[in-house]
Please model this.
Amino acid sequence: MLNKIFSIITFLFFSLLIAVMLHSCANMAAPTGGPYDVDPPVVVSASPDFNSLNVTPQRVEIEFNENIKVESPTEKVIITPPQIAMPIIRSIGKRAVVEFNDELQPNTTYTIDFTDAIVDNNENNPLENFVYSFSTGDQLDTLSISGRVLNAEDLEPQPGVYVGIHSIFDDTVFTNVPFERISRTNSRGDFTVRGMAPGKYRVFALTDMNRDYKYDNPQEALAFLDSIVSPSTMMDVRQDTIFLDSLTIDTIKTVNYTRFLPDNLVLRSFLSDFQRRYLQRNERPVENRLNILFSAPTEMPLFSLLEPEVSGDDWYVTERSINNDTISLWVTDSLIYKQDTIRMEIKYLETDTLNQNVLITDTISFNFRRQAGGGGSRQTKNESQDSLIQYLRINSNIQSSFELFNPIRIEFDQPVVEFDSSYVDFSIQVDSLYESVPFRMQSDTLNPRKFTIRPSWEPGGRYMIKIDSAAVFSRYGLWNDSFEQLFTVKPLDQYGNLEISISGLPVGKQAFVQLLNSTDKPFRKSDVKANVARFQDLPPGEVYARLIIDENGDGKWTTGNYEEGRQPEEVFYYNGKFVIRAYSDHLEEWNINSALLIKQKPLEITTNKPEEKRQRNPNLDRNRQQQQQQNRQSSPIPGMGRGF
Model:
C-alpha cells in the first residue's frame, strides 16, 4: 500500500516538474541567432589562382568562406580589356563565377574589378575594392591611373561613365577602335584604370550609349586629356585610424604602401554641340494654334498649306523659341482654323545616318475634334450678360512688393493687333496723387504676345499701372477687361551690394561670374573687368558663384568639340557661399585656383552627392575595424585592395 502511494506521489512530482519546464520554454524569448555579422566574405581560393601567368580560362571561379551574392554585376563589375560580348557573372553558393564569351587576347593582363559587388548572403556586408587578375602571357601588368570625371559646365561628379585608354595617338582611334583598357566611375565620379603596362597613353571618358567602347555617336558625352599620361609608382605612407566607436580614436598607424601615379587626373565631360535634328511631333491643342516641335535647334522651316489650299503667308502669326526648336503658328484666317483637318507641306533639316543635315520635304496633318453641339452648355436665364463675355486675359509678373532691378513683363493670351506705350498709364504716387512717369516698352522679337516695360525705378516708390478696358484687341476679336495694379518697389535698404576681387585668371582672357541660387541655377551675371566682378541691388540671402573663362567672348559657356580638338570653356566654383545682408556692401576675394577643381563645388548645391555607406552600430564598426586591422597584419591575398 505504501509503495503504491509513493509511486503516485513520484508520478505527480515529475508531472508537475515537466509542466513547469514546458511553461518556462513557452515563455522564452526568440533566439537571437548569435552576434550580428559585420564581416565581409573572405576569399578561400581561386581558379585560376590570383595573378596566374600563361592561362587562358573561359571560366573564373573564386570561392569564399560563406555564401555570397554578386549585386548588379553589369553595373559594378568592370572587366578590362573591355568585353564586347558581355560575360556571364553570377554567384553559386560560396563561389563567384565569371564566364567569358569573348576570345581572350594573347599576352594580355586581364583584370576583374568587382568594386563592392560581392556581399555576403545574409547581412549584405560588401567586400570592397576586390580585384582579381591573371595574364594570358608570361608577364602581369600591375600599373594603374586614377582620377575623377566632372561635368564641364557645372563640375558635377559623373557616375557610370566609362574611362578608357589608347596607346596609339591618332585622333581617329577614339572614334574607330575600342578602348584598350577601361574603368567605370563610381557615385563620386572616381575611376581607376588597372592592369596597365609601362608606356604612354591618351585618356578618354565616354557615356557610351551603345557599349562599343568608342566615340561613334555625337550624342554621347565625352572627355579627353590634351596631355599624354605615363603610369608609374612610388613608395608613400598613409595614416590608418582605428576607432573605438564613432567618435573615439583607438590607434593611428603609419603604413607604407605603393602609390600608383598619376592618381589625380581630372576629365571634363561635355556633349558636343552637334545634335541630331528631326521633327519630333506636331500638335493642335486649340483650333487656331498649330505647334511644331523639333528635337534640336534648327533653322526656320519652310511650309505651305495643302488643305485647305491658300496662297500667301498672311494667314498666320509666328511664335517661336530662340533656336526654332519649338514653333507655334497662330492661324488668323477663320476659314482655315474652322476646318477639322489642316494639312501642310513642310521643308526642314533632318540628320541622316551619316550625321549630315539634309533638307527633306514632309507632309503633316493637324486634326482638331470639336465637341458635339458646339462644346458648350446653355446659359440659364439668371446668368448675367457679363458672364457671356470672354475677355482677352492679361498676365504680368507684378507683385505687391516688387524687386528694384526687375522690369515689368506683360503677356496676353493671344496675339494682339496692336499694343504700344500709348495704351499704358504708368504713374508714381507723390503725396496723395499719382503722377505719370516715363518708361520704355519693348515687344518680344520671338513671342508676339509678350511685352516688357522698363521704367527708371524710384527705390521705395509706390506705383500704379493701368490699361483701360477694350484698349487692346486680339487677332480673334477679343478685347481686354480693365487692368489695374498697385505695387511698391523695394527700398535700397533692403538690398546689398557685392564686389569680388578675382585672382588666378589666365592672362588676356575674358571671363564672367554668375551668381547661383541654392539649386545651382544662375540668376545674375557680371563681366570681370580689371579682375573685379560687381553686383548691385542683391536681395538678402545666401548666394553661390561660378566663373567661366569666356574664350570666344560670346558671354555664355561654350561646349567642346573633339573633331576640332577644342576643350569646353573652363568653369570654376567659389568653394563656399556669400551671405548678402540688407543695406550692406560686401567686398570679397576669390583665387580661382585656391582649391583643386574636384573640391571647388560646394556640397550644398551638388546634385550628384556621393552614396552614403550603410549606417551601422559604432560597436559593430569597431569590430569590423579590428578585424580589418588583423587582416592587414596577416599576408594579404594577391589581387585584393587598390594599393593607394
About this structure: Residues 2-26 form the longest helix (25 residues). The chain has five helices and 42 strands.
